[in-house]
Each structure stands twice: as C-alpha cells, then as structure tokens.
Specification:
This protein has 254 residues and is an all-beta fold. It has no helices and 21 strands.
Amino acid sequence: LLVASNKHGSPTTCIQTIKGGRMYLEKNLDFKESTDSKLISYMTKSKKILISQKSAGSSLFSGYGIRFMDAVYHKLEKFIITGPKPINDFAFDPTEAFLMSVSKETTCKIFNIDTRQSVMSFTPSESALWTCAFNKSRDNQVIFGAQNGITYIYDTKKPNEILHTIETLNRTPVKWIVAVNKTEAFPHGGFFVVQVRGLYFYEYHNGYELRQTKLNFDDSVLTATYDDKTEMLLITTAAMEQTFHILTRLIKVD
C-alpha cells in the first residue's frame, strides 16, 4: 500500500494498492571507480539507466559525465564526458537521441548520444545554470533555471537567441525545471519552476501565451518529479530536521 502523508506525518491519500507478488533484490551494482554518483534517470525506449559520476579514466579525460548502463543485462556501456565540474542536473529529449547537462556553470551543452560529441551550447547570462529540461509540450525547445532566479527558454534552432525570459519576485535560485505534457486540463502543456523558496506552474494558453500560477508551497525543496501517467508531482522537502515527501495533483479551477 502506497500512501502520501502530510507534513505532520499522518496518511492523507491512498494512491495505489498492490495485491500479490513479491519484490526481491535482483543484483547489486558497485561503482567502485567513482564515489560521485549523484543523479540517476531511466530511458524508457532504449532501456538504459543513466548515472552521473566522475570520470575514472586517465588525467587526459578527467572530469565528470554520464555513465550509460543496459537495464536489461546490467552491463556498463558508454560514458559521455560533460565537463570539469560535478553535474547538477541532466535531461534527455523524447527521442532519446540527445543529452543535456548543467554543472552550475554559465553554459549548458547538448550532446549527441551516439557520437558523444557536443552539438549545441547555451549561455543565457553570467549567472550559473542549476537545472535544465526539454520542453515536453514544445518541439525544439529547452528550458534552463539559473542561480539568479530567472528561467530561460530557447528554441534549439536558434541557440543564440533567448525565446523567453521569466522572472519572479522570488529571486532565489531555480533548483528544478519539471516539464509537463499536454493533458485534458492543460491542453497546451506547461512546466513547473521549482525555486529554493517557491513553486510556480506555467501553463501555455492559446498555444503561445504563458500564464503563471504561484502554488501554495514555500518550503525548501530537495527534489521534484512529475509523472505523466498519473499527472502527479512528487516533492521532497526538508523541514524541522525531517524529510517529507508530498504528492500533489494540479486541479484547474476557472
């Protein structure tokens, strides 16, 4: 039984009941060559697990990057070096052909996964970039969140021109950008902007206009993840020296 709890620890909503079956440990994977594995993600189409870590190669190729692992046979595969600093966030496009990463530097790079080469870069300002995302509801668009609290949107066909600049009164750093597919409630799609203090949802209206809604959530966010199937946002937050997981769904009123 999976249950969401409120900030006081009491159960609030039953999410899913799993009947029958057992979970067991299939295999342990030990990355002895790196103790800097911080982020992990999964490619559904190609069945690959992606892990950010420090390069274990020679000094000629020192730095940080993304390790690919076959999720079916548990075999380590290619390693894409992204830069000299630890990766703060990474994302891959819906076709799973391109990988994008930021490392709290002013420039974000997009890599071709097959060739492992950088094919595009973005430098919106002198502020370090903290997070990145491919826009699920807009082809050829990428979104970046910066330390200065500003969100930048680019069209990959014009990497030297900022398509949109989004500023809020809350100038705390943007920790996460969470893209949202088109839904019945939000037919044009949108995305969440998660700041150190503050959570916003931006909805596309009439296909182009962006409408901002500040959500009633001001706690410090550690991570944020959105599930397209259930249309739910999972937020991990820390308060009073405790960690809470908050599961929420957007409901559109008027």
